[in-house]
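Subject: complex prediction, re-run

Hi both,

The earlier run crashed halfway through, so I resubmitted it with identical inputs.
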Amino acid sequence: MKNKKILPIMLILAFMVSVTAFSQAKITVKGSDTMVILAQRWAELYMKSNPQSTIQVTGGGSGVGITALINGTTDICNASRPMKQTEIEKLKSRYNTLGVEIPCAKDGVTIYLNEANKVQELTLKQLSDIYQGNIKNWKELGGNDVAITVYGRENSSGTYVYFHDEVVKGDYAASVQTLPGTAAVVNAVKKDVNGIGYGGAAYAVGVKYAKVKKDANAAGYSPTPESIAKNEYPITRYLYMYLRNRPTGETKKYIDWILGTEGQRVVTEIGYFPVK
Amino acid sequence: MKKLLTIGLFTVISIYGYSQTQQIDSLKEVLEKHEGKLNALDDRVLVNEADLSKLNKIKVSGYIQAQWESYGADLEKTNGYNNTFFIRRARIKFTYEALDGVKFVLQPDFSTGNLALKDAYTVVNLPKLKNVTLWVGQMNRPNYDVEYSSSSRELLERARVTTTIYPGEREVGAKLEYNGIKVPILFQVMVMNGDFTGTQAKAVQSNKDVMARFVYSVKLPSAGVGIDFGANHYFGNNLAKTNQYVKNSNGTVDSLNNVWRYLDKHWTGGEIRIYADVLGGMSIKGEYVAGLNSIASAVASTSTMAQKKASPNLYNNFAGYYITLVKNVGAKNQAVVRYDYYDPNTKLSGDAANGALYYKTWSFAWQYYLNDNIRLTAQYTMPKNETNATNLSDYKDNLFTIRVQAKF
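This time it finished cleanly. Structure:
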């Protein structure tokens, strides 16, 4: 009699486990454009040493990745900003979990300037004013008497949201030219003597970066491993991976590898900073 | 000969040089022309981008719920049919984010033969008060079961206690909300007309109702558990405009000296939700609410005393609760069970409770998420009513429903 009661429960549990296991046969990763080069490198190296694994990485922006996580179309979401409360509520509503947040790297949001630009450092207030359209000429910042061309990201980008919440703290000016991806921002600043842009530290190639100061009296810092590790660089952030449930099986193995020595070595190699 | 050759060579070089200069000039012209075109295109792109960014501020979402229902024998007697197809909801929600922290929401409901305004409110982030928003207009009352959208809810209908004490879910008023990010607290306080029926635009009485809700969230990431718990209180009243008689919680019909008396309406609720990452995720959600509800009589002021006495204002102590278990099965399926209880008058039982019978309802549902937009639900609802000398047995009012929901 006792066995008869236990049997259906065991069958239901076995069914649930098998459904969970099947859903993890192939790992899909979607989200942050800032993280896409890092995620692709992780996937390449991991698949090399684990040929039985298939990891598919796509970008699109943190917002796109989080939506995909909520809709069930990706296993892992890469995000360059923390999930918003409204997004967690959606996850709770659909999957009855709070989601799992895994900080996997650190980044200093870098202020890109053209190499010919005379300006060396900017305060957070000045950056906010530039992006809100209150400062429009480099002359106001000690540069040439020319208009500033302001480049930014699309609103699906986690960097756009992070920069808005932590630096701009107001509405972006309508004159900010939005570009798809950090590489496009870097490229635009590289070609434009009067340009300014922001994005992940790993992309700062062919442009120079401005030192960032908390306020006018504070010291200016560049996004270096030391300043990031000591949290001195004022716009230091974590880069995250989000999952619906606690990882198991191949997904857990992959995440453990990312957080391990090899995965964190790749973080440094790409131009970001390890979490520990 | 040499001279001729030199002159010839010089002439050829000159002609070649001239033609090269001509070509460079013409190339320059072409480049300038194209540069001009590109600049014009650039300007047009900027204008288009500015227009598109305005459109980006408008979000349109919505859902349609089409369902088939099959009724128990007693419901068949009441309805005259034992099954039907019908459109339960057809809604479009327009959200316009005018500025950072300023949002307008408009949501009409297109039910068959009817168009009703469901939501029409403005949300403003209060300057310098991070995470505090002011909501003004027609919106949901601050209650979990009420605010949990029908398009996301795991069961097809809200608990009986919720639908009874918050009819139509919406109210017209102003709400202040604090939704903490670093401190996981949700605090809502709403001042409202308190007598909204969905049809009248203005209040029918001077006194306003107030509702406050507080929720605290605890996260235990290592255990994969999250707990939200809180309490709410509603304080308001109903105006007895036309009838001097009041039937109180003890079932006694009293006469009042003044028909313009306010009837109390107040209750307190407690809520808890536990989310656990167990084999695909599960949650247990519960709410208990008890207090005093009142309903103003709708008889005409010109009615006879006998008519007024037969349809008095109502004044009842009530209690109700629900507990729901939701279990995700894989990424696409969900099993749901709910038990809910509602007693409209806790002071009466037996024959005296006629007209205020308690209900205990079991609901079982299975959801299948076909894709991001389509959800299929099968639900069996088994209400069990209080029995007494008049109501000898449970009504045959079980209900089986299949719903297809398309959400965009």
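Helices of chain B lie at 2-56, 73-79, 144-147, 160-165, 305-310.

- K.
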